[in-house]
Design goal:
Distance between the termini: 22 Å
CATH topology of the largest domain: 2,3-Dihydroxybiphenyl 1,2-Dioxygenase, domain 1
Shape: globular
Number of domains: 2
Number of strands: 10
CATH architecture of the largest domain: Roll
Helix content: 10-25%
Strand content: 35-45%
Structural class: alpha+beta
CATH class of the largest domain: Alpha Beta
Strand order of the largest sheet: 1-4-3-2
Length: 143
């Protein structure tokens, strides 16, 4: 069994983050204050922290690196899911996200490491990637 990861990211507005991650994405909220919120992201502890230096209209900076013909944003984080769960999430996100960085699709089709992937940002501009594999144990680190 994998142990849960913990990651913390900056956000420009706590109520906006609560709406996006809690209401829209459906992540259960754990502990919180007026400066941070713990979310349950598929069993992992995902924490948003208020970064007042961003201002209400600010966003985080990112660069993009080429992968499979797409510009992949750096930094980014997310969760690896079973393909059926990824497909459900992709469908849900199509109704929430109006501007994907990379639309949900199957990357490396027919090759080692074939995976569903999608990239989008939260309202602060934090890039998120969610991947789906048919057999995570065999395919996640296959070379």
């Amino acid at each position: 069994m994998l142990t849960p990861f913990h990651i913390a990211i900056p956000v420009r507005d706590i109520p906006e983050a609560r709406d996006f991650y809690g209401t829209k994405m459906g992540f259960r909220e754990g502990r919180s204050s007026d400066k941070w919120i713990d979310f349950d992201m598929f069993g992992h502890q995902f924490v948003v922290h208020l970064d007042e230096s961003l201002g209400k209209d600010g966003s985080v900076n990112q660069i993009k690196n080429a992968v499979d013909g797409h510009g992949v944003p750096v930094p980014h984080c997310g969760v690896v899911l079973q393909m059926k769960d990824w497909e459900k999430l992709a469908e849900k996100m199509r109704n929430i996200v109006s501007d994907f960085i990379i639309e949900p699709y199957v990357r490396f089709k027919g090759e080692t490491g074939e995976q569903g992937t999608m990239f989008f940002t939260d309202p602060t501009g934090n890039a998120l990637e969610f991947k789906g594999f048919k057999d995570i144990e065999k395919e996640l680190f296959a070379s």
